[in-house]
UniProtKB/TrEMBL annotation:
Keywords: Activator, DNA-binding, Transcription, Transcription regulation
InterPro entries xref list: DNA-bd_dom_put_sf, MerR-type_HTH_dom, MerR_fam, TipA-like_antibiotic-bd, TipAS_dom
Protein name (record): MerR family transcriptional regulator
Taxonomic lineage of the native organism: Bacteria, Bacillati, Bacillota, Bacilli, Bacillales
Residue ranges of every copy of the HTH merR-type domain listed in the record: 1-70
Natural source organism: Lentibacillus salinarum
UniProt cross-references to PROSITE patterns, sorted A to Z: HTH_MERR_2 (PS50937)
């Protein structure tokens, strides 16, 4: 049975624009009629299911394309790997839900909860964007960042996390200003300095990172939690900062 692009979009719950994008980048290319309409086969739907599992697990589209187009790609093996990863994610989420439940009971005075128990389930040792960073800017920069963080004490890492959160809140408060304004540039400099405390970001890498905030919907979703439009504001402000300070 063949389906048109709108029918597939409605069946899966994604936009027609997303399917067009997958076609444009060669990730999922259906057949087309003489009139130019995209027609999806059962095999295309199977491929789309696999793509969306990878995407749900945080794989970038470029990586997904490389995986499914590999001559050694095996669908069943991929499903087994995806299942294992989803089970691990479920276990992590269950742990965090349990921590929330205990926290609520602690707030009501029903149980006592130690400070250590309040942070059970959080795992900052895995960075879902690390592989993408390695591909874009090389192993050395990422390894340097990881080494710096790993050498910090728990208190130092906690302080670093609080500083991260505050920077985003401060930037969200000024996101409606022009990206090239003095206040916006002062705020984005704080972000640049913060990143270089834990890594070694060139101005070019800093500008590229800002672009990824908008190109990668995972980044956009997380950043815009602090304020709608923050990701775009940061991208523009980071680009201005990089261009103004690049004296090469």
């Amino acid at each position: 049975m063949q389906m048109k692009v709108k029918e597939v979009a409605e069946l899966v719950g994604i936009s027609v624009r997303t399917l067009h994008h997958y076609d444009d980048i060669g990730l999922l290319k259906p057949d087309t009629t003489e009139s130019g309409y995209r027609i999806y086969s059962q095999k295309d739907l199977e491929s789309l299911q696999q793509i969306l599992f990878f995407k749900q697990l945080g794989f970038p589209l470029k990586k997904i394309k490389a995986i499914i187009n590999s001559p050694s790609f095996d669908r069943e093996e991929a499903f087994q790997i995806q299942r294992k990863m989803l089970l691990e994610e479920r276990a992590r989420l269950d742990h965090m839900i349990a921590t929330i439940d205990k926290t609520i009971q602690h707030m009501k005075g029903a149980i006592y909860m130690s400070d250590l128990e309040k942070f059970e389930g959080f795992d900052f040792s895995k960075n879902p964007y690390e592989q993408e960073a390695r591909e874009r800017w090389g192993d050395e920069a990422v390894d340097e960042s990881n080494n710096k963080i790993n050498k910090m004490s728990n208190d130092e890492q906690k302080a670093l996390g609080e500083e991260f959160d505050q920077i985003y809140r401060d930037l969200a408060a000024i996101r409606h200003q022009a990206p090239d304004s003095d206040e916006a540039q002062a705020g984005i400099k704080v972000w640049y300095d913060y990143l270089n405390k834990i890594g070694n970001y060139s101005l070019e890498a800093f500008k590229g990172l800002g672009q990824m905030y908008v190109d990668d919907e995972r980044f956009t979703k997380n950043i815009d939690k602090y304020g709608d439009g923050l990701a775009e504001f940061m991208r523009d402000a980071m680009a201005v900062y990089a261009d103004r300070n690049n004296f090469d």
